[in-house]
Amino acid sequence: VINADKSEFNEDQAACCQISIRKREPGLEEDEEWLILCSTQFLTGYYWALFDGHGGPEAAIIASNYLHYCIKQKLEEVVGGITEARPPMHLSGRCVCDSDPQFVEEKHIYAEDLVVGALENAFQECDEVIGQEMEATNQTGGCTALAALYFRGKLYVANAGDSRAILVLKDNVVPMSCEFTPQTERQRIQHLAFLFPKLLDGEFTRFEFPRRLKGDDVGQKVLYRDYFMEGWGYKTVEKADLKYPLVHGHGKQARLLGTLAVSRGLGDHQLKVIDTNIEVKPFLSCIPKVNVFDFALHDIKEDDVLIMATDGLWDVLCDKEVAQTVRSFLAENQTDPHRFSELAKCLVCRARGQKRGHQWMLDDSHEASYDDISVFVIPLHNRDED
Amino acid sequence: VINADKSEFNEDQAACCQISIRKREPGLEEDEEWLILCSTQFLTGYYWALFDGHGGPEAAIIASNYLHYCIKQKLEEVVGGITEARPPMHLSGRCVCDSDPQFVEEKHIYAEDLVVGALENAFQECDEVIGQEMEATNQTGGCTALAALYFRGKLYVANAGDSRAILVLKDNVVPMSCEFTPQTERQRIQHLAFLFPKLLDGEFTRFEFPRRLKGDDVGQKVLYRDYFMEGWGYKTVEKADLKYPLVHGHGKQARLLGTLAVSRGLGDHQLKVIDTNIEVKPFLSCIPKVNVFDFALHDIKEDDVLIMATDGLWDVLCDKEVAQTVRSFLAENQTDPHRFSELAKCLVCRARGQKRGHQWMLDDSHEASYDDISVFVIPLHNRDED
Q: What is the pLDDT of residue B200?
């Protein structure tokens, strides 16, 4: 469900599909391809993803058309290992060294780790493709990416950006992602500027201060943080500290190089800081953090759901408020066959608020979300297993 | 308490002392130093630290003599901000901009953050001093550092290395540190090698494999991880992959560049990989992770203690076993005035085990610790407040 009633262009994109992963017979050589085709079997995965574009919707559109294909491809590359409880040291299944299984066991490598690795590699691959595609068509922009994959009894949620996924279960709420913003990744970003000062081209300071410094501050000791600090210290202000900070602003206003509100995502290969030659991409990461939820370890109830949404929802509603809405809506609408999609609409409408005069307001008279809002509600009960 | 019965040289060092932090009157200029001296007041901190040396005890000795001085110095530099609930934007207390307090509030900066920042800076300062001292005296080696500071109602535990601190409270155990080893910091270390391949001088591969690869593996697809992966994938083995891995081995055997078992600590400025020109120091970090425990938020009972110990203890006893020993020992020895130091001895002896033939064994007939073992037991009840 997407709502872009208030902004000129909708930059959110959504995708969902079934992913069929071709299973190769173990022990077959590449040149026995015809045998593989004869004995093909498929593993099935279920995929949902949200992409929040910036600088135009193009990157989000390519990602929504392409990321599932990258995931399929990366899973097929390792499928021989996924079907074993312990992936073999060699994908071919051959044992070069008698103690191979022991090494895999010692390192605690499970089939699940191959799926996580495939998702990490798929995001990187998709980012490269977007870069090529955007360059070829002379387009710009980027997007965040939040992807959920249900595969062989486990839910994998891969996130790069500031969208969020939570499981709303009967008795508790399980966060399935964390946000990557210039604020949450300040130390990583400052460290890179420390290692490669040229990336700032003399235009930015890597230090963080509580506010932008002014001429009057020079010579005084003011609060600051460097890349290695979680705490704060005081430093004597020099002229160079008056430059614009690499990470600046607070909360939703925090910006990387004064330009971007997220620190991970896909695209943005051509993005430069306005009126400069400074590239933003070196500070961005396309690598997701993957969280795994194993259904075998939980007793899933009928109204348990996965909620995925872009920041348009989470800017105005916290996890707890969303969970309350989910539980009360599903309790009140037990028989409606479309209750899960109705719930998604309900969540979008709550975050969009009501128009009062020129302003959109929430029920509690706080300001409503001005951003695009996209929500998936995915029921977890009665999963088809293959 | 230190036990080095089984090793030729004891490389553990311990330190504890009171730290007096000179408090300056706010608003005084540096040239009014005589006024400051007249009106001097002191804040008191209590300090305990353990240092586990490697490549000789020298770095650990310097650190045990010097780290508390660095901490005192760094705290005095920011003491004007520490005595306020909200540190002022300017250490002088002057308000250059009316909204300064608001910016400090928005960034959630508290006095506690200045103590954390002072500890982070103190470790870095101490590392530099050790580097200069060791170079001047032509000595080598390094050490881990675990430091606890009780200051103004809060306990700060700063850790760089594989020592550990836990709070054993009546009803639960609170971890106050986490370990930094080549395994826990694999991604940081691999990422640095990705950014600066020259650091490996063509002698190491940055990829992780379940075991060291052999000629027979070339051309095959084997399990691997790169810097951006928490999961695993398969890669086709090339000749370059046969090189020794940057991070290799599992558990206590894991080594950085085949050389070091820890990835954070002080010293090691001159350390090179044997028979090469490859420096280890760029991969090491001297920055501690600081954990804070606020006594105002907890009801501390009479037998609640902080346990600090080097890896010699934790290699053979887990948190739970240590907590059990702590609780039963203190319950059985309620009147002994030296019961806390007796408990420390008891923990050391448990980890050292009993000599049976040529082997030292634990009670449960597992192998005992062969490393140096140092333990602090610090009672938390009846703290003097200043």
A: 97
Tell me: pLDDT of B27 over 70: no
Residue range B103-121, pLDDT digits in tens? 999 999 999 999 999 999 9
| Exposed / middle / buried, residue B193 (Cβ in 10 Å: 0-12, 13-18, 19+) | buried
As given in the structure block, the two tokens for residue A195 are 């290692």
Strand spans (E) along chain A: 2-3, 12-23, 41-54, 142-151, 154-160, 164-168, 173-175, 204-205, 221-224, 233-236, 244-245, 247-248, 255-256, 266-267, 289-294, 305-309, 354-356, 359-361, 373-379
CA distance B233 to chain A (A): 5
**Residue A124 counted as domain residue:** yes
- Pair A223, A234: CB distance under 8 Å: yes
User: Any bridge partners for residue A51, and if so which?
Assistant: A13, A145
State how far the Cα of B91 lies from the Cα of A223, in Å rounded to an integer: 8
Distance CA A264, CA A58 (A): 17
Would you state the torsion angle of the CA atoms of residues B325, B328, B331, B335, taken in this order, to the nearest 10 degrees?
-50
Nearest Cα of chain A lies from the Cα of B187 at a distance, in angstroms, of 12
The answer to whether the beta carbons of residues B245 and B204 sit under 8 Å apart is: yes
Q: Are the CB atoms for B99 and B50 separated by under 8 Å? A: no
Q: Is residue B270 part of a domain?
A: no
B137: Cα separation from own chain's centroid? 25
CB-closest option in A113, A214, A216 to B232? A113
- pLDDT (mean) for A309-332: 95
Contact check, Cβ <8 Å, A94/B220: yes
- B386 band by pLDDT with thresholds 50, 70 and 90: very low
b/e burial code for range A33-56 (CB count within 10 A of at least 16 → b): eeeeeeeeeebebbbbbbbbbbbb
Strand partners, A367: A361
Domain that holds residue B218: 185-261
Q: Taking a contact as any Cβ pair under 8 Å apart, which residues of chain A between 275 and 304 contact chain B?
A: 285, 287, 289-290
Identify whether A315 is part of a domain: yes
How far is the alpha carbon of B88 from chain A, nearest alpha carbon, in Å? 8
Q: What is the CATH number of the domain that holds B85?
A: 3.60.40.10
Average pLDDT over residues A133-149: 96
pLDDT reading at A27 higher than 60: no
**Number of domain units in chain A:** 2
Q: What is the pLDDT of residue B7?
A: 62
Rounded to whole angstroms, how far apart are CA atoms A182 and A180?
7
Structure-block tokens of residue B208: 């992780």
Comparing CB atoms, the residue among A81, A233, A287 nearest residue B118 is: A233
Confidence (pLDDT) at B356: 82
Mean pLDDT of B174-196: 97
- The closest alpha carbon to A114, from A152, A165, A167, A148, belongs to A152
pLDDT surpasses 80 at A40: no
Most A CBs within 10 Å, among B86, B107, B149, to test the A interface: B107
Residue B285 lies in a domain: no
State the Cα–Cα distance between residues B386 and B383, nearest whole angstrom: 10
pTM value is 0.93
pLDDT tier for residue A386 given thresholds of 50, 70 and 90: very low
Q: To the nearest whole percent, how much of chain A has pLDDT over 70?
A: 92
On whether both B197 and B162 belong to a single domain, the answer is: no
- Residues of A whose CB is below 8 A from B232: 87, 109, 113-114, 116-117
pLDDT per residue as tens digits for the range A170-191: 999 999 999 999 999 999 999 9
Q: What is the pLDDT of residues B66-99, one digit of tens each?
A: 999 999 999 999 999 998 889 999 999 888 888 9
Within this chain, do residues A164 and A215 fall inside the same structural domain, yes or no?
no
The residue behind tokens 């005095």 is B76
Local confidence band at B358 (pLDDT 50, 70, 90 cut-offs): confident
